[in-house]
Amino acid sequence: MYLVNAKHYSFIKMGWVAATPWLGGVTGSIIGGWISDKIFLKRRKPLMLVTTLTTAIMMVVLINVPADVSILGTCLFMTGFLLNLGYAGFTAYPMGLTTGTTFPVAISVVNTGGNLGGFFSPMIAGALLDAFSYTAVFGFFGLCAILAFIVVLTLDEPL
What we know:
Blueprint: H1 2-6, H2 11-39, H3 45-64, H4 69-85, H5 87-92, H6 103-131, H7 134-153
């Protein structure tokens, strides 16, 4: 609805542009896993920090991006890319802290947090959109990313 209502896209343009974050996400996951393993020597925290900080920045960019299809598509691709650059770190991080028998519980806690975010985010975004504007929605998600950045800063990197 954002692309149709706020940016006045046709449904065809909306479909193509809406696919770009997922293309960026696939690319970011693959490259992020490689960088994490080869450059950061299997350390997960650096890309987790990059992901949370750049996601907050991209929320500000998305608030101000013009309606041009190529510019918006590029911004959404980069948002998906940056969001997923460190995604593998969030799922692999518990492996360094747990044993083979406790890992399933640890990863289920991580997945529960992600699922709760996926469950509540659309409702919160809808409430913000009803009361305010798309700027408030992207601002809220940017603040959530900054909070995630602060939380990741407090984590100890497992050996």
